[in-house]
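Question:
Write out your own:
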Amino acid sequence: MSMQSVASPAIGWTPPKRNTLTHIPGDEGWPFIGKTLEVLADPKGHIEANAAKYGLVYRSHLFGETSIVLLGPEANELVMFDRARQFSSEHGWGRILGLLFPRGLMLRDFDEHREHRQALSVAFKSGPMRSYFTELDKGIAARIAQWKARPGEMLVYPAMKQLTLDLAAASFLGADIGPEVDEINRAFVDMVAAAVAAIRVPIPGTQMARGVKGRKRIVAYFREQIPIRRARAGGDDLFSQLCHATDEQGALLSEQDVIDHMSFLMMAAHDTLTSSLTSLVAALAANPEWQQKLREEASSLGLAPGEPTAFEKLDAMPLSEMAFKEALRIRPPVPSMPRRAVRDFSFMGYDIPAGTMVGVNPMFTHHMKDIWPDPDRFDPLRFTEEAQRNRHRFAWVPFGGGAHMCLGLHFAYMQTKCFMRHFLQNLEVSLPPGYQPSWQVWPIPKPRDGLRVTVKAA
C-alpha cells in the first residue's frame, strides 16, 4: 500500500485491510471488541504473554482496530526517533486526546511539530524555569508543612493530585490568577478524567460530557486572558511566556495555538507528574534504606527544613534523580505510545503497510530481564554513569524520544527534586503492616486505593 492510498491528514488515515496484516503472528480475539477487555484488565501481563508466544512483533485488535505491537528498545528507536518520518503521532493519539486536547504539541507532526516545539521551547529555558521554581518551591513547602501537621495514615495519590494541580496553576497560570483558580482547576480535572473515560462520546451525564464542558470553560478563560497578558510586559508564568512566544518568522502564535498548547501542557504536566511522584513515594515507603540515603542527601544541601530551596542546589541531588529515574522505569507514566504509519515500513522481517496503527510499550521494555536484571526490584544504582554506558539508548523511554521527546522533562526533574528535598527533610513514610498496594497500569499508572501510607515527622 502506497502513501497515496491513505486519506489526507485533514480527513484521517484509512486503516489497511485486515488481510494485509495476517502474515504477522497474533490473535485478534473477539469480533468488534478484540482484545480490548484483556488489555484493560492486565496490560502488563497481557503484553508479556503475547511477547512470549509471538515474539517482539505481533498483531492484535484494540479499541475497534487491528494494530501491530512493536516491542523492545530497537522498536522504540524505530518509532520514536523516526528518522524517515514514517509515523504520525497526531493520528496515533488523536482518537484518544483529540476531542479534549486538540492540536496540542503531541498532536502535531513533522515540520509543523518542529516549528511549534521551537516556539514553545522559550518557556522552558533557564530564565523562565527559575521563575517557575520560586512559586513551585513555596507551594511544595506549604503543602508538606500541612502533611507534617497531620501525622498518621494518608492517601498519597489524591494528596499528590491536589499538589500538582496547585503547582501547575501557580507556575503555568501565575500566582495571581485570583478566585477563578478553583473553577479552572475543576475544569482541568474533568478534562483529564474524560481523556481516559471508557465512553468516548459526550453523552449527557457522562465523564466525556463533563470533560467537553470543562474544555469550553478553559478555552473561554484563555481567550479572555490572552490579550490581557499580551498587553503587559513580562510575566513569569508559562502562560504569559507563550502569549509572547513567536514563530520562525517572528509572528506571535495565534490565540488558538496558545489555547491548544496551554490546555495540553497543563494536562501533561499535571497527570503524569502525579503518577510519577506517587510511584516514587511508594518506592521509598517500601525501601526505607533508600529513603534514608536520599534524606541524607537532602540534608547535605545545608538548608534548614523551612528554608527556601536555592535553584543551584538541585544539581547536588544525583541520588534523588537516579531514584526518580528508577521509579519511572518501574512504572512509566505513559506505559504505551500509539502511532500511525504514514509509509510502508519493515521491522524484524515483517512488511507493514501505511495506515497501520502501531504501538510501542515502554512498560514492557523497562522490564526486559536481559536489560534490567530482577526488573521488579527498586534499584536507583541502575542509573549510575557506568551502569548506563553500554545500555541501548532507547531501553529507558519514560519521556518518549526523538522529535517528540517530552518538552517538559527538565521541568519534571526540577519539581521532583524540589519535592524530595522538602518531603524527606520533614517526613518519614512507611507502608502499613501487611499492606501491598495494587496498581492500575493503563492509561496512566495509579494506585487503585490511593496508596495508603503512614507519615510522621522525620
Observations:
- The first strand starts at residue 57 and ends at 62.
- Residues 3-457 form a domain with the Cytochrome p450 fold (CATH 1.10.630.10).
- Confidence is low (pLDDT under 50) at residues 1-11.
